[in-house]
Amino acid sequence: RKRDYEGFLCSLLLPAESRTSAFALRAFNMYPFQIKDSITQKTTGLMRMQFWRDAVEDIYCDNPPHQPVATELWRAVKRHNLTKMWFMKIIDEREKNLDDRAYRNIQELETYAENTQSALLYLTLEMLGVRDIHADHAASHIGKAQGIVTCLRATPYHSTRQKVFLPMDVCML
C-alpha cells in the first residue's frame, strides 16, 4: 500500500479470492525494486538479490524462508501454480540494474521493462487463470509502456541525486 499505491489500488479491482496473492506479488516486486536506492555498495545489493533468488528457490521447494512476503508468495505459488521463471527474471533484471548507469538505447529500457513490469503482469495473468498468448502479448506491451513511463516519472527524483537513467540515444537527440 505504501510503496506501490497504484498497484495496490489496481489489486483491489481483482476478484476477492485473488487479492491476497496479488498483494504478495506486488510486495515481492517492491523488494528487488527498492534495493538499488537503499544501498551504498553494490555488494550489499548483490547479497539482497541473492536472498530473494534463494527465497524463490526455497518457495518452489516448499520451504519458504520465515519472511512475511516470502510466506505469502509461497501461498500464491501453491494456489495458482505460478511460473518460477518470471520471478527470476524480475530479480535478475533488477540485479543488472544495480550498476547505476543510463540505458544505452530505448531497446535496453524496453528489455528492462519486459523483464520487470511485463513479468509481473504475466504472473498476475497466471494468478487469474489467464494463460493466453494474446493476453501475454498485450501484457508485454503494457509492461514495456509502464516501464518507460516509470523511467520518465522518476526523472525528477533521479535528477536530485544527479543521475540520469533516460536512454542515451533519446537524450542525444
Automatic annotation (TrEMBL):
Biological classification of the source: Eukaryota, Metazoa, Chordata, Craniata, Vertebrata
Name of protein: NADH dehydrogenase (ubiquinone) complex I, assembly factor 6
A cellular-component GO term for this protein: mitochondrial inner membrane
Family matches, as InterPro entries: Isoprenoid_synthase_dom_sf, Squ/phyt_synthse
Family designation: Belongs to the NDUFAF6 family.
Pfam family for this entry, one: SQS_PSY
Subcellular location: Mitochondrion inner membrane
Function of the molecule: Involved in the assembly of mitochondrial NADH:ubiquinone oxidoreductase complex (complex I) at early stages. May play a role in the biogenesis of complex I subunit MT-ND1.
Origin superkingdom: Eukaryota
Keywords: Membrane, Mitochondrion, Mitochondrion inner membrane, Transit peptide
Annotated signal peptide: none
